[in-house]
């Protein structure tokens, strides 16, 4: 209820502040019997890790995960899996000057009014550092989904500020620091980011995340629709301001004769639905688009107030990502994985009695 | 867990099929002492009611609500409020021919695979008829929010197919069948809808819904962010394909120096955040944008398959809205109200100890 | 959260006051495909119905149930099943004199302080009339448990006031108005009840409810233990003051060498555990004992106060059960069924991956 | 859903195995502003700690707690409080011989069938070692309840095997290793325990736990009754087989004229209800009785089977409590505190609108 847990059957309960002793989570509901070791989790953590290129924050965190429970002789036991990541590089002195002021675009003002007290060091609980925990939990979800169903979850940046990034192929994504699915555009992105940094400013981004091979029938009909739970998951990522499924906002100007995906014995003829109809998966690829606002911490002088309501001017220095959208890619993948595994388990609970003869159909993966 | 309830502290549990005996819900968690009668609810139901103009479905439903419990001598008692709406105009013959086929764009295919059985009459549980229930429950939420906090929740259509609708003023909205905030454009919208109907097609829509006077401090920090819960609520409305908060997708191409709302002693200098920072309300107007796909039921021939997987061609006749987005306006208002009242009650539970001296600030309402 | 729902995966949301228009519930999470009609539910309702003998309340309620949704062509569809029972015999005049006073032993005082307002007619929401709803929902649960697993849930009275009732055989239970498993004692029980009524007093009761053929492995390990959820369910029945599992309070004076049930290839050698170890079912019969206090409404003069705190003397007339424990038997069965079906569905969600070779063992059913 | 969390608004999520690296929990929902340091928690942990007398297990655990998050400058911030207790004395060799067998009275058999895999070292997740976590979380709850409402929660042993222990006074409880409220009986208890140990056996126990100064109005009316949630909490403690509130099982043989607590302007005239009526607190002392079975691990030879279903004889050596009921006293206190704080926060969420003029009454504390 206090907003630090997600998932009904596969539940992640997160804890930790940016500059406290540690961050971590308890993953409850992971089915028993899954092979799991710290290295399985570390791989995804390293994709989100700060300090891997000059285009992201220079904070140095090992982000080393320790499994405290729930695994015995290399396999999950069905009991809670506690994950611990110690904070090692907290330069709290960077933040001392903002304890009594509210950084524009940040949660400082709203936190202060909600709690009446806050840990100002690095944004405390509102820091995007918390997303490491989700990536860790998401790695477990991904592994199970892949082993049980062959589900593949992956994402890439589709827009960086004003620059749209074409999709050339998945192998490109891991080969550059922008999660761009097109090698050719990388130099342009680098120049662009350099100029943004020099102007002491930041930019927004747009990303796409997909899940392939999701079985038909996952999701609920009225209030826990699969698309609603995905929207919820994405909007729970720091800095996200918009979410769309399939054709998304483009469907506003579409006609029904264009948007509605026809069915054929060979599969759906298109995927404007983005793999979900009536809140339930269709077996097509699930297509999610996410809009991320520019980083709020910038070194330009900005107007704000202090706790007493006095006007002031502040610049936010420190080691910030000039575009938080970049490192959000593995976070969005994790959130999609966590949403899907929860619905996978719900589906199990509900549907043992069902025997449907109709052959599943699939069809084109991409909505556009 | 089966997806027919929403809200943690103010919980709506919905039931009913389009062509069954009745639809309705149980509202649990409404604070005691609120003055309430059926008429309070009926007003909002009538705004969503079918058959009110030629541009919406011609199904004739009185949508008359009966309060079965939870109200004594004109006031809520704190016990569950059950609401019942009998279905009166179910022409099931209209749907007999689709029992063994899957209508493109509809939930038929995914429902079939999820449940192995479905009530095909009018889409059964997947029918947008269920949204009447939300409007009814939302009316209770709205009334309480208004009486306690002066909160005003309202919405309007911002785009109908290709036509963008300007915002001229709130009083316009109730004066035309399109929930358009501009009288002048109404004739154009009418011609447009007539042409859509004649072409046996349908169109999408975009709408905006806002909540004014929401206190600062509502929402959770990590996973039940207010914006995430709003996105979830909106995406749970039939046919919704995208949601954005504040600047939304426009923030992708913004710079941090532009997007981040500055604070001044007189209030925020802008509202790109849409009234929410770090998942918690700021006291500014909450701004939500919603994209709705074109109605899936159209009378044009479309390709599909039957349960055995055989190809076929089908036309969907019946009494359908040529643009489901229009009547979605009161539904979106209701979903926003239900989300807010839940967070209002959470806030109560959490914050009795807090005494924050800083004067609240507000600032400009609109994000753009 | 407001205490009108039970069950995580098979959720019953109850509504209604004793003297309002109706009581009822929404059952969400019933698996699709179960044959179900009103008559299936009516049978259990009739066992709990008032007015069936001179030893229970003489209120005349048909307790006729209407299924409003979730069933299509005689089978459940997986969508919410709404059940409605209209109140027909509300003599509110019986209760007019108690609107401003607090009946001893009743919830009047605590409700008044919780809600600040209450529906005094017949106890309003706190009336045991609400338990009809649980019996109705429980009938669905029972039917599914029986069809899927052959589970048999049944109960009987083991003590009425000072009189212990021996267990002679299950067929006896349906043959007398006391749910006594021994015909021979019935005349003595009748005389006893007559004398209690004549003395304008009431008595407590003890009952036993069991579930046979429950598979091994249901229940959670730490906080949602099957025995804890059963205790919760039982203690949620009006007037229940104690719950025990298996040997229960007798285990206090037992030695470990006596209490701990040995395992043999043929099954457990005893059942002091009552079918549950470590919160998880063992495959033995689940054994539950319940203590029920005497009816609070008695016609003797008793001291109380009014809302202003003034002393007064009151007698509670009306049509009350002289022993609420009797009609509690079908209610306790229903609560056990609702608890078990929820864990059955949880088990499904969790355990698809498990393949345990060990042959299940069972052993003696009774704990003592 | 997987049974490792308790509480809706004050939620404890527990993790850890007896012989894994650590146990711990995340406490989510603690109001901000509470002064808190590790020492506050350590005090209660030390009361439950093993190895403090010859009558409890000789396992040596420092049970030192580390606060990982949620506290800043000595006060809670409203964000999750993660507590970590490293396991230091795990002699896994003690348990190697039981990996393929099922100890009578233990969760081994049911765990194996539920999960298909288990951590056999010290009972893994089913070990009572987990209860240290609850004591730690409960210490936070206790502190808040005391500071806000002056609530006092305490418990004592009322029966050890066949020996009933009189209540002489609270100060006695801390002065002996049995949590006995009577000094004079201690030598007899010591002799008794010595003889139990010598006979290689174990005994059950009965305990009483109370909460004084609980305000009137906490609890829910139908399904989350305060007494039901307390029963659930107690039955979730390892080895508990029975729970009663107020007069409990004694109420079976009572008359209504005896059981029903009369109200007077000076307070209730008795407390057979145990402080709860209709599921809601009355302002009187909450009275809970708990029955605990004898320790299952005994060194006598007992019949069992192995995973293949073969008969065998086993003795359970190791360092076990000859009566688990003794150290259960602080655990039961913690569970009561956790239940109460959750309802305290629910009450806040629901009842801001209520203004009830009637003066609260209290009356006698003890039910008997």
Sequence-ordered SSE layout with sheet pairings:
4 copies of one chain form a homotetramer.
Chain A: E1 5-6, E2 11-16, E3 22-28, H1 38-48, E4 65-67, E5 71-72, E6 75-76, E7 81-86, H2 108-115, H3 131-149, E8 152-160, E9 163-164, H4 186-198, E10 205-212, H5 226-235, E11 240-245, H6 256-259, E12 263-264, E13 267-268, E14 276-277, E15 280-281, E16 286-292, E17 302-305, E18 311-314, H7 324-351
Antiparallel strand pairs in A: 1-2, 2-3, 3-7, 4-7, 5-6, 8-9, 8-10, 10-16, 11-16, 12-13, 14-15, 17-18
Helix pairs in contact in A: 1-3, 1-7, 3-7, 5-7
Structural features, described:
4 copies of one chain form a homotetramer. Chain A has helices spanning 38-48, 108-115, 131-149, 186-198, 226-235, 256-259, 324-351, and strands at residues 5-6, 11-16, 22-28, 65-67, 71-72, 75-76, 81-86, 152-160, 163-164, 205-212, 240-245, 263-264, 267-268, 276-277, 280-281, 286-292, 302-305, 311-314. The two termini of chain A are 38 Å apart. In chain A, the strands form 6 sheets. Chain A has a 5-stranded antiparallel sheet with strand order 1-2-3-7-4, with helices on one face. In chain A, strands 9-8-10-16-11 form a 5-stranded antiparallel sheet. Chain A is of the alpha+beta class. The longest helix of chain A is centred in the last third of the chain and has 28 residues, at 324-351. The first copy, chain A, has one domain (5-351): Chorismate synthase AroC (Chorismate synthase, AroC fold), CATH 3.60.150. Chain A has 7 helices and 18 strands. Chain A is 25% helix and 21% strand. In chain A, strand 14 (276-277) and strand 15 form a beta hairpin. Chains in contact: A-B, A-C, A-D, B-C, B-D, C-D. Chains A and B meet through strand 1, helix 2, helix 5, strand 11 and helix 6 of A and strand 1, helix 2, helix 5, strand 11 and helix 6 of B.
């Amino acid at each position: 209820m206090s907003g630090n847990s997600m998932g009904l059957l596969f539940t992640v309960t997160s804890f930790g502040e940016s500059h406290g002793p540690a961050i971590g989570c308890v993953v409850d509901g992971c089915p028993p019997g899954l092979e799991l070791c710290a290295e399985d989790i570390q791989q995804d953590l390293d994709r989100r890790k700060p300090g891997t290129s000059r285009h992201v924050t220079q904070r140095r965190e090992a982000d080393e995960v320790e499994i405290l429970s729930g695994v015995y002789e290399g396999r999950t036991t069905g009991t809670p899996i506690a994950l611990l990541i110690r904070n090692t590089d907290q330069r709290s002195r960077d933040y001392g000057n903002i304890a009594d002021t509210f950084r524009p675009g940040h949660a400082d003002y709203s936190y202060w009014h909600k709690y009446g007290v806050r840990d100002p060091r690095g944004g405390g609980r509102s820091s995007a550092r918390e997303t490491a925990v989700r990536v860790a939990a998401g790695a477990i979800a991904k592994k199970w989904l892949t082993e049980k169903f062959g589900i593949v979850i992956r994402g890439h940046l589709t827009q960086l500020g004003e620059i749209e990034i074409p999709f050339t192929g998945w192998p490109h994504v891991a080969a550059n620091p922008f999660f761009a699915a097109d090698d050719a555009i990388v130099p342009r992105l680098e120049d662009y980011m350099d100029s943004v940094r020099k102007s002491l400013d930041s930019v927004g981004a747009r990303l796409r995340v997909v899940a392939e091979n999701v079985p038909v029938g996952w999701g609920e009909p009225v209030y826990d629709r699969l698309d609603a739970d995905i929207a919820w998951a994405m909007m729970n990522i720091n800095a996200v301001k918009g979410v769309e499924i399939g054709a998304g906002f483009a469907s506003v100007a579409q006609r029904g004769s264009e948007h509605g995906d026809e069915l054929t014995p060979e599969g759906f003829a298109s995927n404007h639905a983005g793999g979900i109809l009536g809140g339930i998966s269709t077996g097509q690829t699930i297509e999610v688009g996410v809009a991320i606002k520019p980083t709020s911490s910038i070194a330009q002088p900005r107007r704000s107030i202090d706790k007493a309501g006095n006007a002031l001017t502040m610049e936010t220095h420190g080691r910030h990502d000039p575009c938080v959208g970049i490192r959000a890619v593995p976070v969005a993948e994790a959130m999609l994985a966590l949403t899907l595994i929860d619905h996978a388990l719900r589906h199990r609970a509900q549907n043992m009695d069902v025997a449907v003869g109709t052959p599943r159909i699939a069809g084109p993966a991409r909505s556009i």
